[in-house]
Amino acid sequence: MTGSSRSAKDFFRPLAVGAPSPLTEIPARPSRAIHFFDPSNEKMAAKIPAMVGTVDVLLGNLEDAVKADNKLAAREGLVKIAKATDFGPTQLWTRINSLDSPWVLDDLTTLVPAIGGKLDVIMVPKVQGAEDIHYVDRLLAQLEAKAGLDRPILIHAILETARGVANVEEICGASPRMQGLSLGPADLAADRRMKTTRVGGGHPGYLVREDPPRVDGTANLEAHRATYQQDLWHYTIARMVDACAMHGIYPYYGPFGDIADVVACEDQFRNAFLLGCVGTWSLHPKQIAIANRVFSPSVEDILHARRVVAAMGDGTGAVMLDGKMEDDASLKQCLVMVRLAEELAAIDPELKKQYDAITVDEEA
Ligand SMILES: CC(=O)SCCNC(=O)CCNC(=O)[C@H](O)C(C)(C)COP(=O)(O)OP(=O)(O)OC[C@H]1O[C@@H](n2cnc3c(N)ncnc32)[C@H](O)[C@@H]1OP(=O)(O)O
Ligand SMILES: CC(=O)C(=O)O
Ligand SMILES: [Mg+2]
């Protein structure tokens, strides 16, 4: 409840008479790829029904990347697609326009009555602090009550301003609707006055160089020295992950704009996965497979995790496995993997087959 002006006993009370009760726990629904589409782009929109079941989240984007002249068409297009499509296991999200824009009020007052029953999560861009979440929270409660919705729509915030990063913990704890956070590297870079011009990913100038070799104690500054590119986003992602974990919500990478560079995209996604993110964005259909692969634990990882679980028995003490010590803390890490695999297997039959084929030899 950090940063909220509500007292502890009021935190889970609905913010409007007749609004659905807030959730006390955010469900861990698989969301490896949040796939963006522009509902005003007829060609793109026509592909969406066939993508149901192939991606964990479909997100109708109304904000940046949608032309100002197309804002109304995007909103109406999303309503049309949502009404006409059975999303089955796939979640439907939207990214509304920023809270200071001329479009956001109509976004919310149109979408909630029209398709609120189908919308799982509303992504709010350029969130600066808890006050932005409080505003959306109350408005959603009023709109949900009016529309007679029986479950609350969740909120996902994009971390894309310096103030937002500084306030990350209070943003995560601002409402029981908070589902998660995504990194917004493009707007964040601009807001911080970083000197990059890319959408996510690394930069060749952001590096460390190995020390010069020394000859008789003297540095040879003419010698070749390897350089290692560093991750521009490590600090922000690490802050996001901690803030989300602290509040029981979910962190995500964000967009990787170099669509052609699938290798660097995979690396960036994997760094985020290893640091604790549960998913990422996909801007182009070819990024979906990358995200699904990266954000699903590998068969090798699950085999190892299950072996540790089997070897640890009741989960206390310490054992040796393959020459390494395993104990209560490594068991907990393995259980994170095993539980994630179970959640993913429940919605991904191909992955289920792979995980089911793993046999754990308890003597090994
Ligand atoms: C910083 C931020 O805010 S990031 C979030 C905002 N940005 C976005 O949402 C961008 C979403 N993606 C896009 O707009 C597009 O993918 C672009 C502009 C990046 C590339 O588009 P194109 O040049 O058309 O890509 P490309 O030619 O490879 O497309 C191949 C096919 O996939 C379709 N396609 C492309 N992107 C998508 C998508 N996101 N969803 C569904 N279909 C798509 C195209 O319509 C095309 O269909 P076709 O084969 O029938 O002609
Ligand atoms: C994700 C996003 O909106 C940004 O990078 O600005
Ligand atoms: Mg942005």
From TrEMBL:
Keyword Magnesium belongs to the record: yes
Q: So where does Mg(2+) get bound? A: 160, 187
Q: Which cofactors are reported in the record for this sequence?
A: Mg(2+)
Show which residues constitute the signal peptide: none
**What keywords is this UniProt entry annotated with?**
Lyase, Magnesium, Metal-binding
Q: Name the domain of life this protein comes from.
A: Bacteria
| Residues given in the record as substrate binding sites | 95, 160
Matching entries from InterPro entries are given as: Aldolase/citrate-lyase_domain (IPR005000), Citrate_lyase_beta/mcl1/mcl2 (IPR011206), Pyrv/PenolPyrv_kinase-like_dom (IPR015813), Pyrv_kinase-like_dom_sf (IPR040442)
Which Gene Ontology MF annotations are present? lyase activity; magnesium ion binding
Biological process terms from the Gene Ontology for this record are:
oxaloacetate metabolic process
The HpcH/HpaI aldolase/citrate lyase domain sits at: 36-198
In Pfam terms, one family for this protein is: HpcH_HpaI
Q: What is this protein called?
A: Beta-methylmalyl-CoA/L-malyl-CoA lyase
Q: Which organism is it from?
A: Nocardioides szechwanensis
